[in-house]
Predict the 3D structure of the following.
Amino acid sequence: MLIKGIADSHCHYDDSAFDCDRDNLLDEMLTSEDSAVSLLVHACTDEASALFGIKTAKKYDNFYTSIGFHPECCDRLPENYMEVLERLLEKSRKIVAVGEVGLDYHYDGYDKELQIRLLCDQIQFANKHELPLIFHCRDATADFLEILHRYKPMGVVHCFSGAPEVAKEIVDLGLYMGFTGILTFKNAKKVKKSFCTIPTDRILLETDCPYMAPEPFRGKRCTSDMIEYTAHVGAELIGITPQELVDKARENTMRLFNIKAK
Ligand SMILES: [Zn+2]
């Protein structure tokens, strides 16, 4: 069965993995009549990435962008990063979120205190401008949840792969959860279990491309149309059709990011 109307709520088409065919790929996905993809949201990682998102959003109707500094930026963060964000926000009306922001304790190299300050500053920026956030959290659940409880932001926890108890806490805070190709991995028992416990009106589908390609493409370069494979696995888990899940996830993406139907 042919899937239509895929919304990829988290993609990185500025990644060098797309240097060889970026324009063709985006043209094909966003302008061709029979494309399975109908909406892309760029997950920004730094200032150059924000400028890519803003430029691309100008070119394609159904491409939206976030602005923000990823925790991996901590070692090259501009000192005036809050001013940079304010300036970027003036540049486009298609900036729909602040992200991707968060905590990443997986690698030792990044200063935890700076990560926490950067995250809290960006949450306050988003709250002030009434924008949702795109959150990244890796090996930092306790600190991350404490910050969510403190600031009560709107947003999505992207690439969710945690346990059902954590999923429940995030849902109770009013947040959404983004699921990548990890959902299709055979050993991803925990994330499958979590997926079944959260309300369907909080589910977003995403690629995190070029990473996290679903089975049977695991390890290869990922593109947004591959969400079809994630949707097949997700839909089976909760007893709906893949098209129903894709439609639901697109509606959720548009509600969270305040994107109006054309
Ligand atoms: Zn990402």
User: Anything to note?
Assistant: Strands lie at 6-11, 37-42, 63-67, 95-104, 133-138, 155-157, 176-179, 203-205.
